[in-house]
Design brief:
The chain is of the alpha/beta class and about 170 residues long. The chain has one domain (about 1-165): Alpha/Beta hydrolase fold, catalytic domain (Rossmann fold, 3-Layer(aba) Sandwich). The chain is about 40% helix and about 15% strand. It has 6 helices and 7 strands. It has helices at about 30-45, 65-80, 80-95, 110-115, 120-130, 145-155, and strands at about 1-5, 10, 25-30, 55, 100-105, 135-140, 160-165. The protein starts with a strand and ends in a 10-residue tail after the last strand.
Length: about 170
Amino acid sequence: MKFYSGFSLKNESYLFDDYINTSEYTVCGFSYGAIKAFQYTQKQLANAKRVDTLQLFSPAFFQSKDAKFKRLQLISYKKNENVYLRQFIESCFFPHAKKIVEHRNTKAEELEELLAYEWDLQELQKLLTKGVKIEVYLASEDRIIDVEQARELFLKVATVTYIKNANHFLQTN
């Protein structure tokens, strides 16, 4: 199993232990890491490598947000990265108690990438034609992504698990 971390995070995969398929042919990603997991899977398949399952945990989904929202996120990050990241993590855990997460150095370009990223339905469908099972996990109390728009898109190509009373980290308590 290969896991890609969310924006500014590292080693948070333990939060998804209840959902992760530990097969060596599974690729997983959380939030921003879901984008990276998808891109990695595409490259693996292009190089005739085996991937059976792609698991996307609260995949970064901002394609329904307007330019003003995205611009404000970047301005806030650039103004004070530490404050932005603290508030971001608090929002990720809302409405439940914060758990321990490790951080890594970030760049504004990563935030720009995740805010600008648009999931391509045709590219996702290509994975299906190559035998990859796509699983998406979304949370009802997620304050980070547009859950309803993500659900609408991913239902066309994936098994979508909708977790009631869960936050962006899929935690229910």
